[in-house]
Each structure stands twice: as structure tokens, then as C-alpha cells.
Amino acid sequence: MWGRLRRPQQDLPVRDWVSTGRPTQMQGFDQALVWVGLALLALGLVMVYSASIALPDNPRFARYASSHFLTRHVVSIALAFVAALIVVQVQMQTWEKYAPWMFLAALVLLMLVLVPGIGKGVNGARRWIPLGLLNFQPSELAKLAVALYAADYMVRKMDVKEKFFQAVWPMALAVGLVGVLLLAEPDMGAFMVIAAIAMGILFLGGVNGRMFFLITAVLVAAFVMMITFSEWRRERIFAYLDPWNEKYTLGKAYQLSHSLIAFGRGELFGQGLGSSVEKLHYLPEAHTDFLLAVIGEELGFAGVAVVIFAFFWLTRRIFHIGRQAVALDRVFSGLVAQGIGIWMGGQAFINMGVNLGVLPTKGLTLPLMSYGGSAILLNCVALAIVLRVDIENRQLMRGGRA
């Protein structure tokens, strides 16, 4: 009886802070999305520790403790949690207002990272800006900035989306500028993800199909030319096509060949947590780009299948939230969520493809799992924005205001 009397009170419309003068009350959010994200972070933390625990045996990391990377990864996750808790409080209309400025800030940081004395070079690439607790990677911010800017751009250009020069060409120039800066680092993997985010949002925003395929063809041609006229990129493709060739096994295909060996050793249920042999200085970057190979060796096909399914579910759920926002006439929020879905799903697909030998080697981490402070930070911020979109969707469906 009391339950029947109380239930109507729980279904009352939720008013927002604009109309009441009080902060928005988060009456509901997608708990499954949060739990899957937390599960990936937790598994990533365990596997980063497992993959990095033997690194101090390498003279290059001799001054580090065995828990060095674990400690830094914990700090990164803690910072990411704090940032996510702040970001989830920010209304989507605020992100829409400042989207162009975020894109401009990302461009400035992409320029600064190329300046000697500011940007930090590692293994021949200059992609990081040292900030004490973490080395910030501007390309990670650029992924979020492009998702926000492209969504805002499509909302502003909705009336002329059928006209190429008025709708597509300016966005193409913006992405092209980001691409030039990323290729100067060099970071072709990040450029591929950013191009996919921008193209996906243009397509979902309703750009004419013929124009979309024309732009896709231009991008594919650009990537082919970059590979054709770059000897080291061309060698990577040849190594990917024939990783067991003696010419490549100890060179360009070294990581790929040892990644495949790790998966082969893992078989169905793996060698057991902590029992990887390939992480013992055979597989470079085991705690970053090739974390999935360590998962495959220690947890086997079963562990890899769980990770793949988790990312599939996460991406699908993010897209569902985005479509729901568009259905509620919140186009900017919907496009941002779907752009983040393309980012998470696309980058996870590329990383998994590289680890499994399906795609050529690229320097992309596994979202939410691989070691990397700025990547973890921006991944959690992006998921917090998706959660905010979901919260505002639920408020509207209850009869309140977003």
C-alpha cells in the first residue's frame, strides 16, 4: 500500500537549475554504462601492472620500481575520476557554446608540442607536453575537441548541408589543419581516428551521400599517397603483409610477430594471470599499444572475447544514447555522443586489429585500458559527457528541462 502511494512521487517531473535556481538533480543515469566503463578500467589496471612489472629488469627502466607504472596509472585514473565528476555536472549547452574555443585550444597545443623545449620526444615522435604528474598528449584532447566542434558545426550548417562549399569544405580544411600538425609529430594513427570522428559526424548530421563518398575517396587517396611517398610507412605495410619474413621479423614486424606469438600461447583460457612470457622484454610497449596481446597470452581467447564484447556493448550503448538525444530534438548532444562512440569503438577496433595482425601497426592505445595518463583522462571525460547527454535525455522524457 505504502509503495503504491509513494510511487507517483518518484515519477514527478524533474526541474532543472534554470527554472529553480538550484543545481540539476541527477535522478537517473545509465548505470550499466558506468559499470562497464569501470570494469574496463579495473581490468586495464590489473593488466598494466602485469605487463609492466618486469620492465625494471630492462636497463632502460632500471631506475624504476616494479610498481612504477602501476602507481602512475592509479594516479591517472584518480585524476580522471575527479575530472569526470566535474564534467558530468556541465550542461551540454555549455559545451556547445565553447566548442569552437576548445577546437582552437587543441590546435594551439598541437602547435606547441612541436616546439623544441616544450614538446617531449619519445622513440622519434614528439607528441607529449610534460606536466609533472603526467605527460599530456594534445592529440587526445584534439579527438574530443573535433567531436564537439564537428557537432556544433553541423548544427550551425544544418540549412546548407546539401551544398558542398558552404557545408563541407570549411570542416575539411579544419580537419586537414589538424592532420598536418599530427603528421608532423608524426601520429598518423590519431589522425585516422580524428578523420573518422569528423566524417562520421558529417554523415550522421545529414550531409549529402554523394559528397560524403567523395570526401571519403579523397581521404583514402591521401592516406595511400602518404604511404606511397613515405619509405618507413611503406615498409610497415610490407611487414604487416609478411610478418614472418626474415627481413621484417627482427625489424618492422618485430612487435607484430611477438604479439601473434602471445596470442598463440594463450590458446583458449590463457597461461594464467602474470604468466606471460612475451612481456619479459620480447614484446615492446606491452603495457601500452600491445596490452591486448598480454591479455590474450594470460587470459586466452576467453579474456580477449570478453574485452571485445565489452567494447562492442559500450559503443552500441553510446550510439543508442546519441540517437535518443537526436529523437528528442537535441541534435548537438546526439552528434557529440555518436562522435564519442566512433572514437571509442573505432580506436578500440584499430588497436585490436593491430594486435591481432588484421591491420598495419599503429601507435594507438586501447581506450580505458592501456597505460597513458592523458588518454585515460580524456576517455573518462568523454564518457562523462555521454553520461551527461543521457541524464538530460532522461530529464526531458520525465517532462523536465535538460
From TrEMBL:
It comes from the Bacteria. Keywords: Cell cycle, Cell division, Cell inner membrane, Cell membrane, Cell shape, Cell wall biogenesis/degradation, Glycosyltransferase, Membrane, Peptidoglycan synthesis, Transferase, Transmembrane, Transmembrane helix. The lineage of its organism: Bacteria, Pseudomonadati, Pseudomonadota, Betaproteobacteria, Burkholderiales. Pathway: Cell wall biogenesis; peptidoglycan biosynthesis. The gene is ftsW. Belongs to the SEDS family. FtsW subfamily. It is an enzyme of class 2 (transferase). It is found in: Cell inner membrane; Cell membrane. PANTHER family: CELL CYCLE PROTEIN, PEPTIDOGLYCAN GLYCOSYLTRANSFERASE FTSW-RELATED. InterPro entries: Cell_cycle_FtsW-rel_CS, FtsW, FtsW/RodA. NCBIfam families: ftsW. It comes from Caldimonas aquatica. The chain crosses the membrane at residues 32-53, 74-92, 98-118, 164-184, 190-207, 212-230, 290-315, 327-350, 370-391. It is a multi-pass membrane protein. Peptidoglycan polymerase that is essential for cell division. This is Probable peptidoglycan glycosyltransferase FtsW. Signal peptide: none annotated.
